[in-house]
Amino acid sequence: MSYATYEDFKALYGDGKLDEAGFSRLVWEAEKLMDDATTGADGVRKLRAAPPKCKCDKEAVKRCACALVDTLRQIEEAAENIRRAQGYTENADGTLQGRVITSRSAGGESISYATGSAAKSGTTAIDAAVSDMTARERLFADTVRRYLSGVPDANGVNLLYMGPYPVRMEA
User: What is the pLDDT of residue 17?
Assistant: First the structure.
């Protein structure tokens, strides 16, 4: 079961932002993020086990998936733009670390670069997500919370409820 289709994505975010192959690749990751966020302490994957029945709740799930796909697309696009820029390196976790010039000297031609957090010059959440895994996870969690807060599954259990599942699931 897929939470959103390529047609859903095009209808919400416009044509041309992502081709169907790119969507297929990113929607898997978006759905994994949603499954992780809606799995309680006892391992019940509420979104898979009992998807919402109400039309507006189904729409919230679809929009969440599409928003995550678009966020993932923006992160990939920003990372690619940075890779093209001179002086950036990729960390082991896939984030990028920039080399921001902090000082220059003309006489002996000396250039000093900032490292670590000083090099993170991004001004948007997407920019921060490119270079900081914690910021990336926060952005995903905020997106899921925005769309799925208060949305119940088919049994009336809030999708973001993390306690033991209060309804007996049939095997």
Answer: 83
